[in-house]
Write a structure and sequence with these properties.
Layout: H1 8-11, H2 17-22, E1 32-33, H3 45-56, H4 69-81, E2 88-92, H5 94-106, E3 112-117, H6 122-129, E4 133-138, H7 147-153, E5 158-164, H8 176-188, E6 192-196, E7 219-224, E8 237-241, H9 243-254, H10 262-267, H11 277-296, E9 309-313, H12 320-329, E10 332-333, E11 335-336, E12 346-350, H13 355-367
Parallel strand pairs: 1-10, 3-4, 3-5, 5-6, 6-7
Antiparallel strand pairs: 2-8, 7-8, 9-12, 11-12
Amino acid sequence: MKEQLLSDRVRGIEPSGIRKIFDRVPLAKNPINLTMGEPDFDVPELIKDAAKAAMDQGRNKYTPTQGIPPLRQAIAEHLKSNGIPFEEVMVTAGVSGGLVLSSLALINPGDEVLIPDPYFVMYKYVVGLAGGTPVFLDTYPDFKLKPETLEKAISPRTKFLMLNSPNNPTGAVLSAPEINALAEVVKKHDLFVVSDEIYDRFVFDGNHHESISTRDVPTLILGGFSKTYGMTGWRLGYAAGPAWLIKQMITMQQYSFTSANSVAQFAVLKAFSCDMSKEIASLEERRDMVYEGLRRLGFKPTRPEGAFYVFTPVPPGHTSESFVERCIAKELFVIPGDAFSQKDTHFRISFAASREDLRRALNVLEALKP
């Protein structure tokens, strides 16, 4: 009887494929946890000291729904310095908060949202919760959305395109020519874009992040501090875009999250003074370590150009779930690819872990190699 009280909108929502594996980690005796997109470095001392000072100064109350003015100004200046166009900016409860608010503000029942596949686990469910229909765009094998694939998927019901570069789970990064080609299709069909750019600082091999917003495309930018500064638990992000949308998202936040964490907002003002280049360089080295190690073992990963992840085909004869279960039996915790995709062919490793854990992981995978 009690389950009959559940709304139709939540009946099709399944637990996160990431969290299902992550929740099993504490049951292992000596786990190798490569599940979460979470840096292994700590929050810089400058930011932690600012958080302590904020608490001591009584900055523990509600803030304006859209975020404290100094932080909104700092985010705006940061975006302008990187050539990102926008009209308004607000502070959100992580990028996840921005995804929820933007989906509720944009999607009507029956609207279609175009989502390149593979995708972050939240995308398809937040679209469904808002009453929309996710339309998945196959980007295998190189995980780059092609303009012809985008063109074919557009219909009269298309509401917007969801982009994520650098990408979770694949580490794919759209280059300037690739962004240019997609922007031409978007402008031809007068599409709106929601661009999840949480990994914008994590681009390797001397390249840099390209945002479709700089191509005269109407865009909502979703960004944050969690990954760059090792503060995933602080839940602090931002949304920047057209005033008509940000205004409505602020109203929606009043009736949902109320506001982002107050202490975190004051503390993260110091983030703009922190140099994270060493931490990012260290992650690039670990990318190389895992990618080359997998290739040496006979796996066939696609080389990630950014973010924290290597997305690798499972050995022949396995589904992603069956292969991950073999890994877990040896206390290696990775994520099955079907958590991120309509296909069931890959598994995701997060290389944002210690070198020792990554070495242990490669030793386990050697016993499971193709």
